[in-house]
Each structure stands twice: as C-alpha cells, then as structure tokens.
Design goal:
With 791 residues, the protein is α+β, with helices and mostly antiparallel strands. 31% of the residues lie in helices and 20% in strands. One of its GO terms (biological process) is antibiotic biosynthetic process.
C-alpha cells in the first residue's frame, strides 16, 4: 500500500450555519477525501449526510434527480424531452406511505432529514455563488431543491432484468434456434424457453425497447442534442446502440466474500467487496462514515441515497453483488380495432390508463404529453396498424423497490437474526448479501423481490390477455442461506449459485446469470494455501488470472504447429504464460486481441449463417463461446474438431499479425496495457470546455471482464469502461485495519484535490485506510467542517 498526501487546497476549518440542524455536528475529511460525519442525534446525522453529499457531489446528484424525475428538458432543451417522458413512465406511482414504510419504520424521517441537508447546501450555494460547481456555470443551470419523495420515487437506475434479453431472444428464436441464442446468453439450469401459445413473436423488433432503454440510460451531452429544435424532440433517444446497451447490462456485476475466522491468520472474519459498474467521473459510489449515539457505520453507497449499502457498523460487516433474479416481464397486447388505447384482457377489452404530464422545456413552451399504462405497467411501444401494444411489468411498481433503500434496515443490523429480518425489506436490485460479525459468524443469502410465474419461465415476452400473471413474490423466508459453512467462507460473483437441489421451476429466481469464471477463480484462491490475511483479499480483488485463458490455451497449444513463423512465435508466448492478464504482459495482449478481434467474430460467422442476427449476439457469453470450441458440433461442418482447429489456427495467426500492426513487430514491445487502459469520462467532456478538463485518465491496467479484477472493455478500442471503482476489505473486529479505494476520487467537484487523487492508486492496485475509530480519524484528519444550527 502506497500513501501520498494530496495537494492541500481546501480550507482546514470551516464553520457553517445549517437550517434544520438541531444540535452542532461536524464533517471530518481525512487525507483521502473520506468524510467522517458526527452528530448528536440521527436526524442531524442524516441531515449532515445530505449536506455533505451535496458539498462533494452536487452536480452529480442534481443531474441524477432531474434524469430520474424527467426534468432534464427544463435545463437542457428539447433534445431531452423524449428522455424525460421515458423516465416518467417508470416512476413509482403507488401509495407513498406504504413506500416509506417498506424500508424502515423511520425511513420517511431519514429521507426528510437527508433532503433537508441537500437543500441547506443548495441554499448555501445560492448565498455564496463561488461554491457552485463549474458544470452548472458551464451549462447555465442551477441545482434544484429536493423533496423526501424524490429519493424513493425514482426507480429507473435500478439494475433489474431481463426485459432486453426477452425481446432479443424472441427475435433470435423467430429466425434461428436456441443454440444460436445460447451464444448470446447461457441459461442455468439449461432449459427450452416456453413460448406462449398463440403469440406471434416474429413481428417484434428491437425498436420496441427504445423507451425502456431511454428510461434507464444515463444522461449524455452533445452540441447537436443541446441545440435540437422542439419539432425534432422525438428522434432524440440519447442512448447508445443496442450492442452497447446490452454490453453494459452484461458488464455490471461484483465480487464479494466473507472468510470465517477459522480460515484467517488473525482468527477474525474478513469481508471483502468490489462492486463493478460503469466507470465515470465522478465515481458512482461514495464512501462515508456516519456516527451518532446508537449508530456508527462506515462504507460505500450512492451519494443520492441516505445510509450505506456496503460496509460495517462496528459489529457486523455486509456487502452485496448482483443476483440473477428475473424482475421484469415484457407483455404484448392485442388492441381494439376502433379503440387503439383498449387492450384485450380476460376475454374483453379494457382501457389503458392515460396520464397527461407537463414538461418544462428550455426556450420553448411547456409541453403536455400522454403516458399510457396497462394493468401490468407502462406502455413502451404502440403499433396501431398492427393492433399491438407492448408494456413492461417490473417490480419497480411495488412499494419497497427503490434501489438500495433496503439498506436503511440492513446497515443497522447487529446480529444474523436482525440481518435476516432486515433483508425481508430488500426490494431492488436483487443481490447476493454476504455478512460477517464480531461473534465470528459469516453468511450468504440472496435478497430482493422474486416474482413467481406459475405457467412460464420469464425468458420470452408473453400475452397481456390475463393468461400469464404473477402469482406473487417468493416469501423471503423461503430463500436459501449459507451460514458458517465447513469450507470456511462464502462468496459470490454474479454466478448461478443456488443450492444444487433448488426447485427452480417451483421457486423461481431466474435462468440468466453471469458466466462463472470470476467465481471459480475466487473459490480456487480462497480454498488453496495457508491461513488467509487482509493482503490475500486485496490481492484477490486485484487478481488478473483468467480461467477462460487457461481453457483456451489448452486448446491452442494442442494445435498442429504449422509452418508460419508467426504461429511459432505465438505458441512460444502462450507456452510460457501463466494466464495472468498483467498490464505488462505480451501474451495477455495477444490473447485478448485473439479472443475479441478474431475468435468471437469468426466463430459467430461460422455458427450463425444469418449475418443480421450476429450483432444481437454480442458481446457473447464467454461460457457459451468456450463450450462451442471445447465441444465442437456439426454447425462447424462434417468434421467439427478439424474445422475448429483450423479456425483457432487462423485466428491465432491473424491475432499475432494484428498485434504486430498495433504494437510493433517484436513481441518484446507488446504490453496488454498499451491497448487496455482505465479511463473515467465526464458527461460534459467535449461540450463544456470552459468547465476545464473533467476526464480522468488514461491509466494502464491489466485484467478483463473474466478476471476477479474486473476491467471490462469496449471491443472497439479495448478502453476499460467497466469494473470496480470502490473496493473494501474489512478486518471484522479490528476495524481500523480495514482498507478501501474509490476511483477516480471521493469528490465530484473538479476543483477539489479529491476529484482524481485516488485514480493512480486504483490503477496500481493500491489501497488506503478505511479508518473507523475517532482517534485514528483525528490523527489523519485534513479538513474539518463545523455545522451549527442556523439562527
């Protein structure tokens, strides 16, 4: 671990009067930008958390709120009106008191205090304009005040699934077969998707997903979009092409594990977590320490949400990764010939609910747009000529489905029994929870709403006529648990990890999971060797061993040698390689170029005759790719093994020549990091030069999406765009030994020394202290902000 002190450009001490504060509170910012908040009561603590979130991340959380509530066009013009409309389709519209009560008895009070803190900082910015982040000045906008309901009504940034996959599968199965679709997404356990009788899926196209993609997309900026005229608003979907959207869904995941004291050198449990999301400046996650009488917790969450979702409370540590519960369904309706906003259900036609929404638009009159809803959810596509409408049913309409708000209960649990009870309140995203406490207990369980489908499997769109209805949500009391297993640890990495005897058809979670190479490598590392230490966990979080490389190299090195000198040189590199995608590895560069630029496209061309389907199969499921080459079938020809060997040989030769063109003729000059670099881009780069250089990077990094150090990249140029920004490794019971990193930095203010100070450490696999005790924090403190009641 390397420590360097960031440039001290912040005032060492401030005193600020804050409206709504009942007693004095304080923010102690350590040398790494981690704020340690102290208050005399929980109301003031969560008010201070909101105030501090706005202090460090005001542009980010203001943009998130405006995106989620459909308020972008008021700031940025007609080019954002379509996104506003799509976002409002997915707002929570149910009983707001039931919504707050779903998370914790005091959830409303916490959210009210939190937004009071945000609003207090907004008022401070209005009184002292020099505090306004440069993004607002560059765009000519101002932050808005929040209501407590804003925290819980926004759903569309939650990681639910699998509406995109359902529609893509319907297209593929209508034009090809299941074997073709499995190249895109493996199913576990394997099954034939149930096709609803009488529903023609061949007429569905990816265009029906436009509104859903738009509702769940981040905010993008371009000069053309910002200048879009009102008459052109419908064409500004503002989202990437389908391939990039699907890749994003596949890349987002996480690792976590909890090691029992019987397997550690100290005799204490160790809990580690590194959630994998899209890289950006500022970071998605934010580390914060919350301390008041009766509650003292530190960890990471999202800055626009009160509390923490990963961390510890001095007694119990907790973390999460995405679990593969299927929380979405696509419904297709027959609409009435003479009444297109009526749809067939239960033998008759019933009307859609039509809601008129008002949208403020910059430099244009207010717009009134219609939103349509069926009994299942928002209508995302209508085709009146075909008499068809499409809607999405999702758990977002349920009370308790605001992402991560279940943390308001789970972060306060001090025993396994309390933690289990708290997880009953967890709605979205569906997650694997791992747990460890000072009593020595470690545990794993899934959490999150799991819709039950009594007569179908959720893998394809279904009719909305009443024949395919949820029977409810699986009772969390029936979820599986692993507590203190004999092997001495629990872990997850988004893989299919239900018990071997789990009745998938009767107690449904889902059939789509992330391929298991990261999980297998984690299990391999935790199973081997002597007693484990914190360093073993930090090493594993930054481990770049690729099990797919191990499997593919076994095939490549069994091929006939061939006559080309490039093949001999390629084999020499791979024979000496340990299958680690190190940043400075020539073999790693060759392997990743081989897989991404040559094997994947050539394999799809060989296995999928319909070239128009191939883009829908990207980025390709790695387990399915490995199965296709390890178990070649007649799709490759009369002699599948021979055809497979020829294909691998041609791809390896092409990859070697590709590397020569990219990095020079000598493999001694090759390095994986010459192609593969970490980068944190800011949404305004390129459109607001007056705001300064807001991007952070590039940084040379190793790994891939299939290594525990997840560094997923764009196939077009190998830029690392997904992976862990936050990493935490916690020594349960000796909390000041715990370690963390957040990248590119804790602050979202480009003027702050903590905007990008952690990125170099992240790139080198280094950590900084996650301090908990007052003595340790005060010894490192660099900045103190005293908050006093106004008036």
């Amino acid at each position: 671990m390397t420590e360097t002190t960031p440039k001290d450009t912040l005032p060492p001490h401030e005193r600020i009067a804050v409206a709504g504060l009942r007693q004095p509170a304080s923010i102690h910012v350590d040398r790494w930008g981690i704020p340690h908040l102290r208050a005399e009561n929980e109301h003031d603590l969560f008010l201070a958390q909101g105030f501090n979130a706005a202090r460090d991340r005001l542009w980010q959380i203001d943009l998130w709120r405006k995106r989620g509530l459909g308020l972008l066009a008021a700031d940025f013009g007609p080019g954002y009106l379509a996104q506003d409309r799509a976002s409002r389709l997915f707002l929570y519209r149910g009983d707001i008191e039931a919504e707050f009560a779903a998370y914790a008895p005091d959830a409303r009070a916490i959210c009210e205090a939190f937004v009071a803190g945000i609003n207090a900082y907004v008022a401070l910015v209005e009184a002292e304009p020099d505090r306004l982040p440069p993004e607002f000045r560059a765009m000519g906008t101002r932050p808005q005040r929040w209501a407590a309901e804003d925290v819980v009504r926004i759903r569309s940034h939650s990681l639910t699934r699998n509406a995109l996959s359902e529609v893509i599968r319907a297209i593929i199965l209508s034009r090809a077969d299941l074997a073709t679709d499995l190249l895109r997404k493996n199913l576990e356990p394997m099954k034939e998707p149930v096709r609803a009788e009488g529903l023609d899926l061949s007429t569905l196209g990816v265009e029906v997903l436009t509104q859903f993609k738009l509702a769940t997309a981040g905010v993008t900026f371009s000069a053309e979009r910002l200048a879009a005229p009102l008459g052109d608003w419908r064409r500004w979907t503002g989202v990437s092409d389908l391939g990039e959207v699907v890749q994003g869904a596949e890349m987002e995941g996480s690792n976590n594990w909890a090691i029992h004291g019987s397997r550690t050198e100290s005799g204490r449990p160790i809990l580690a977590s590194d959630p994998h999301r899209a890289h950006a400046a500022p970071s998605l996650r934010y580390i914060v320490h919350l301390e008041a009488p009766g509650f003292n917790a530190i960890g990471a969450g999202e800055p626009g949400v009160p509390g923490i979702s990963i961390g510890h409370n001095g007694t119990a540590a907790f973390a999460l990764t995405i679990h593969g519960a299927d929380q979405e369904d696509v419904y297709v309706y027959e609409t009435a010939a003479d009444l297109p906003r009526h749809y067939r259900h239960a033998g008759g036609f019933e009307p859609m609910e039509v809601v008129e929404e008002r949208f403020a638009v910059k430099d244009a009159p207010e717009q009134v747009l219609e939103l349509c809803f069926t009994r299942h959810g928002p209508v995302i596509a209508e085709d009146r000529a075909a008499r068809r409408a499409v809607a999405i049913r999702t758990v977002w309409s349920q009370p308790g489905a605001a992402p991560y708000l279940g943390s308001l209960s789970s972060m306060r649990a001090r025993s396994l029994a309390e933690f289990r009870e708290a997880l009953r309140r967890w709605g979205t995203p569906s997650v694997n929870k791992v747990y460890a406490d000072t009593g020595g207990t470690v545990a794993w369980a899934p959490a999150g709403f799991a819709p039950q489908r009594p007569n179908w499997d959720g893998l394809l769109p279904v009719p909305g006529d009443g024949s395919h209805e949820w029977s409810g949500l699986l009772d969390p009391a029936e979820y599986p648990w692993r507590v203190d297993p004999l092997e001495g640890f629990v872990h997850s990495a988004n893989e299919q990890n239900m018990p071997a005897d789990w009745p998938h058809a009767r107690k449904t979670f889902g059939y789509e999971w992330t391929e298991a190479s990261r999980a297998r490598r984690i299990r391999e590392a935790l199973t081997r060797g002597p007693l484990l230490t914190l360093a073993d966990s930090t090493d594993l979080q930054t481990d770049v061993t690729s099990l797919p490389a191990r499997r593919l190299c076994a095939l490549l090195l069994s091929l006939p040698r061939g006559r080309e000198p490039e093949l001999w040189a390629a084999r020499a590199l791979l024979e000496e390689w340990d299958h680690r995608l190190e940043a400075d590895s020539a073999a790693a560069a060759l392997f990743e170029v081989f897989v991404t630029k040559h094997l994947k496209p050539r394999l799809l061309a060989a296995l999928v005759p319909d070239a128009t389907l191939r883009p829908l199969l990207l980025p390709q499921d790695m387990e399915s790719l490995l199965r296709a080459v390890e178990q070649p079938d007649p799709r490759l020809g009369a002699d599948p093994a021979r055809a497979r060997d020829a294909l691998l040989t041609e791809c390896l030769l092409a990859a070697f020549r590709d590397c020569e063109a990219r990095m020079g003729v000598s493999p001694a000059e090759w390095q994986w990091s010459r192609l593969h670099q970490g980068y944190f881009s800011h949404a305004l780069m390129g459109v607001a030069p007056e705001a300064g250089n807001l991007d952070v990077g590039p940084f040379p990094v190793g790994g891939s999406a299939s290594t525990p150090m997840h560094t997923g990249y764009r196939p077009s140029d190998f830029r690392c765009t997904y992976g862990a920004s936050v990493r935490l490794v916690m020594d349960v019971g000796e909390w000041d030994n715990s370690l963390c990193i957040n990248a590119p930095g804790q602050s979202g203010d480009p003027a702050s020394p903590h905007y990008a100070d952690l990125a170099p450490h992240w790139a080198r696999g280094e950590y900084v202290p996650l301090l908990y005790s007052r003595a340790a924090v005060d010894a490192m403190e660099m900045q103190r902000i005293e908050l006093v009641p106004a008036g």
